[in-house]
Design a protein that fits this description.
5-stranded antiparallel β-sheet
């Protein structure tokens, strides 16, 4: 059985892609982050970039019109 991070579960809810800001169920990106208990953190040198960390330490990063599952470093992106 494959373990999905909370960030991967979040991404599956936002199944329309990384430029879609509403889930298939009609829940907005920000409201879904609240449902997943995400904590926001702004990047100090780029206020257009925000990291949302979940309880398991995984995260998604939103930057200028798109969002992505975080890569191996904080604020890095994995394009899905």
């Amino acid at each position: 059985m494959e373990y999905l991070t909370v960030a991967a579960q979040f991404a599956s809810e936002m199944e329309g892609g990384t430029t879609v800001w509403t889930s298939a169920q009609g829940v907005g990106f920000t409201n879904l982050l609240v449902e997943f208990f995400a904590k926001p953190e702004l990047k100090r040198d780029n206020y257009y970039c925000c990291r949302y960390e979940f309880e398991d330490g995984s995260a998604v990063v939103a930057v200028e019109g798109s969002w992505h599952v975080e890569g191996p470093e904080p604020f890095s992106c994995i394009v899905i």
